[in-house]
Specification:
The chain is an alpha/beta fold. Helices cover about 35% and strands about 20% of the residues. The radius of gyration is 16 Å and the shape is globular.
Amino acid sequence: MQKKTIEELQRISIEQFKTKEKLPLVVVLDNVRSLHNVGSVFRTSDAYLVQRIFLCGITATPPSAEIHKTALGAEDSVEWHYFPKTEDALQQLKNEGFVVLSVEQAKNSLSLTSLQLDADKKYAIVLGNEVKGVQQQVVDMSDGCVELPQYGTKHSLNVSVTAGIVIWDFYKQMQKWVEL
């Protein structure tokens, strides 16, 4: 088996990416501390045609060498906006008709394995701080919580790993809704 060359991968340009139809999905980062995690979320969001990223609170914004180290330029392709308060970002999303789901271990949260998305809706997922998770007031504003089932001794995953899993799951369900 031979690895594909860069030419065979047929990657699109940043300009082509910006005009391409996106998934009706926004990723919200609620006080994410690590610039490497932020960069990783940008890169995953680019890979799976996420519409926008909202960077909130202490979450760093581009330009940043540390974000670029893991984003590898995706910070230039994926549309992003900064909000000092996550609640303001959620209010904007709700005003735009998004269903807001926090990725958090909460009472009555829905397992990601059971999540069935509605093709007539657009979604936003909120990912929280590496230590404290999604702020309680942000959980309170959300339309629900989605939880990743875990079976080992640890009760959480790295936020960028969680983002990758959740974005991939949303992509699998939503890709048929957009012209790729």
